[in-house]
Specification:
With about 325 residues, the chain is mainly beta. It is built from 3 helices and 23 strands. The chain has one domain. Strands 6-5-10-11-12-13 form a 6-stranded antiparallel sheet, with no helix packed on it.
Length: about 325
């Protein structure tokens, strides 16, 4: 039986919807929506700037999980059960490949993606057990989205999503979705991302955080066109981590246009915000937004280089991967 306890909810919610509507901004979110000249992305809704991730298991912020092992966040994924032939069966092995969750149960071939629908994930946090269920799965190869919901612990019919709410979502029902990245480690203290070699390690990244949003914008680190350095630059761009130190200089829901070297996204509307590298911004535009004047931005006590006029080959700058532009 699940022990009684009080849950300290730290699920983060949208705060800028009203200001976006006042500015006449749409809530376009998914990479496929970049096609038109006026299409734009939205930086995700986090809290106090844009955080790395908004996933919570129990009362603890989390990201990485490994079946049967404690994670760096202090979470233990004790067991996973899948609904198979009308009954729940314990998963023997659990891993991810290119954003797709895979599992095996004894005596059967591997299960994957939609086979995990209604699976139950038992998570131990500070000695307390929480049970999450994947209630919905969206997408296909290369970009699956999962809804993790705590529906067993408190008996609430609507459940408690593990992810924070995102502005607009990606359609009805998936405003709380997460993507999964294999063998990824992220350090929120300095904003770095890197591979790890732990078998079965997966990073559950809510789309309301910088890591998850970078994936849904098209920059998944398992994509053959995107290196880990490219992904690092994309996460910096999503979070507006100008100094490359883990800080976020923007507000939630700020609309931007995107360009990048492999042309995953290419929209040169608006004015230059910044050119992005794994270490932060290589240069800054002079457009003021959300109350921040870039002329006053300093990193380690030094101003950043200004971006020159349009027409300059910004992607010739050392380490540059992408550019963000403002409407």
């Amino acid at each position: 039986m699940i022990a009684n306890r009080i849950r300290n909810s730290i699920i983060l919610s949208t705060t800028l919807t009203a200001s976006l509507l006042a500015a006449g901004c749409d809530a376009v979110d998914a990479p496929e929506d970049f096609a038109g000249d006026q299409a734009h992305a939205l930086r995700p809704s986090g809290g106090g700037g844009i955080v790395f991730n908004t996933l919570t298991f129990g009362h603890l912020s989390a990201s990485e999980v490994v079946l049967g092992q404690p994670s760096p966040d202090g979470v233990v994924l004790e067991s996973v059960e899948v609904l198979f032939d009308g009954q729940y069966a314990a998963v023997e092995n659990l891993w991810a490949e290119q954003g797709e969750i895979h599992a095996t149960i004894p005596g059967y071939e591997a299960l994957h993606a939609y086979d995990l629908l209604e699976s139950r994930w038992s998570v131990v946090v500070d000695g307390e057990l929480y049970v999450y269920t994947i209630t919905e799965i969206f997408g296909d190869a290369g970009l699956y989205r999962y809804n993790f919901v705590d529906i067993d612990t408190y008996g609430r019919e609507e459940g408690i999503p593990a992810c924070g709410h995102q502005i607009g979502g990606n359609g009805p029902g998936n405003e709380y979705t997460a993507v999964v990245i294999e063998n990824l480690t992220a350090d929120p203290t300095n904003g770095t991302v890197s591979y790890n070699s732990t078998p079965g390690s997966m990073f559950i990244a809510c789309e309301t955080g910088g890591v998850g949003k970078a994936v849904t914008w098209g920059y998944a680190p398992y994509d053959k066109e995107v290196s880990m350095n490219d992904f690092q630059a994309a996460v910096r761009m999503v979070r507006d981590d100008l100094c490359g130190d883990g800080g976020s200089w923007t507000q939630q829901g700020t609309p931007i246009f995107l360009l990048d070297k492999p042309a995953i996204n290419w929209n040169d509307s608006g004015v230059i915000e910044a050119v992005w590298t794994p270490d932060g911004a290589a240069c800054l535009g002079d457009h003021t937004r959300t109350g921040i004047d870039y002329a006053n931005v300093t990193c380690n006590g030094q101003p950043l280089n200004p971006c020159l006029a349009d027409g300059w080959d910004y992607f010739s700058l050392d380490g540059s991967f992408s550019m963000s532009r403002l409407p």
